[in-house]
Amino acid sequence: MEKEAEERLWKILDEAEISLLITQGEEGYPHSRPMTLLGYEEEGVLWFATSRSSRKVTEIDRDPKVTVCFLALEGGAHAQAFGRAEILEDPELKAELWMEDWGEYWEGPEDPDYVLLVVHLDRAEYYLIEDDELWVIDFS
Question: CA separation (Å) from 131 to 114, 127, 134?
Fold first, then answer.
């Protein structure tokens, strides 16, 4: 059953129209912003791209605990993933994950402001609206 629950979680992430990354803001309130999920690893790792100069990086440096929410409106489900964020500047990974569309944000994969944001999941949960079911997955 655990494997099926995990497979459904990844399906929700694949189908999600909206992804929100939530960090602990400077004023003590959660701060959310839309993010594009680049990919995931089934052992519980989420990948995003961001700017080193962004407020979220400052907030993650201060407190790496984050929540990522996914809304799959068409699929009738939503998920929350809880974990610890890390900023990676690995040149090979940056080049491998680089997308040409990002040229409006960064000068290229070597741009020092372009970094990878990785979330190592501790736990995730999702809710299936039609089935009125809440599922919890522990990654730790």
Answer: 41, 9, 9
